[in-house]
Each structure stands twice: as C-alpha cells, then as structure tokens.
Design a protein that fits this description.
This protein is an alpha/beta fold. Helices cover 49% and strands 18% of the residues. The chain is elongated, with a radius of gyration of 19 Å. It comes from Pseudonocardia hispaniensis.
Length: 217
C-alpha cells in the first residue's frame, strides 16, 4: 500500500534561537513523519545548513534571530529553491504577517498556538497549501483598515497594501508593476482606487495615512 503523502518521511530545517522551543518543534515534526531534522539557532547557522544539505521538504523559522532578520532568511531560502517555508513568530502584527507571505512563506504560525494548530499548519504546507494562524487569518481575509482624510476607516485589499508599500519604498509605477508582475496601467488603477478610498490623490499623503495606521513601514 502506498502511504498518504502526509505519512511519508520528510526532511525539515528548524531555525530558532531558543533551544527548548526548537527541540519541542523538532519532536513534534518527528512524530508527524519527519525523517531528517536539521536545527539552527541563527541566520548564519541556517545558511550553512541550507548550503550543506540543499533544500529540505520544509523549513520552520523564527522571524527574530540574534544575527539577522528571519524575513530576509525566508527570501534567501526561497531563492535557493526551498518551496515550503513556515514562519513561527511571537508577533501578530499585521505588517509582520503580510511581510512574511510577501517574502515567500506558505504559513504564519504564532508561538502561542496550540500543538494542533501547528500540526494543521505544517500538514497544509506539506500538502502544497498555505495556512495562517486562526488569530491572524481574519486580517488576511478582510484586508486592512486605514483612516482616510476624513478620519473614516477604509478597507484596503492586500494587493493595495503591497502597492502602497512599494510606493513608500520610492518605486515608480513601472518598477512596482515589475515587482508584482502587473502592468504599469494596472498599478495606476490600484493607486486611483486607493486615492478614492482615502480621499486623496497625492502619493505622499496616501503613504503617510497608511504609515500612521501601521499598515506599511
């Protein structure tokens, strides 16, 4: 009998600077069928493991590491061919959640999550899906509220937030389109819609309103 994909042995890299948490995660993954579990306590160790062993079937990593950003590590691993990346973080900050998915993560789990939630998230990613901790999932589903020039909160979609972040980064419509695989005309349409929602057509003011709301940085 051919086992279900979830029951097959898989390899995994666990990156967290807290030994007890890292060991607990590794133990749970082994109970789920992980055959090889590599551990790293820093960005440098994770890079070394990744280069020595090549892409594993799964990586679970913290965003707050002692020698660098876990978010940058997500981007690096993604570029190296890692296709299943799970972020395990302390923060439910909306910006952190969106940034993790934009960097290439397939799941965002909170360290405060129950073992069953962690298991569900890992299984979903191993099956090729995406997963957000139930605490942060509503945020991703509904977008983000930003008070407009009249102080009335307006809902921005995840795509509109992405566009605004790139505007804040100083990118032109053409550059934003290239980054998001959109035409410059589509980017212009997104900005026009954002402007109507927020009550201003000024790019700098749109960015300022979104920054004050904590939607972008």
């Amino acid at each position: 009998m051919v086992p279900h994909p979830r029951e097959e042995l898989f390899s995994v890299l666990v990156v967290d600077d807290h030994p007890l948490l890292r060991e607990a995660i590794a133990a749970r993954l082994r109970s789920m069928g992980a055959g090889t579990v590599h551990e790293a306590a820093s960005v440098a160790e994770a890079r070394a493991r990744a280069q020595a062993n090549g892409p594993c079937d799964l990586a679970i990593l913290d965003l707050s590491l002692p020698d660098g950003s876990g978010l940058d590590l997500v981007t690096e691993l993604r570029a190296m061919g890692w296709t299943r990346l799970v972020v395990l973080a302390s923060s439910d900050d909306p910006y952190a959640v969106r940034s993790a998915f934009q960097a290439g993560a397939q799941a965002y789990l909170l360290k405060s999550a129950s073992p069953s939630v962690v298991t569900d998230g890992v299984k979903r990613v191993l099956d090729g899906g995406v997963y957000a901790d139930p605490t942060v999932a509503p945020l991703l589903a509904t977008g983000t509220r930003v008070p407009g020039t009249d102080n009335t909160p307006r809902e921005l979609s995840a795509r509109e937030v992405e566009v605004l972040q790139l505007v804040a980064d100083g990118q032109s419509n053409k550059e934003i389109g290239e980054a998001l695989n959109l035409s410059a005309l589509t980017v212009k349409s997104h900005l026009s819609r954002i402007g109507r929602k927020l009550g201003t057509g000024d790019r700098a003011q749109m960015v300022a309103l979104a920054m004050r709301a904590g939607v972008i940085r």
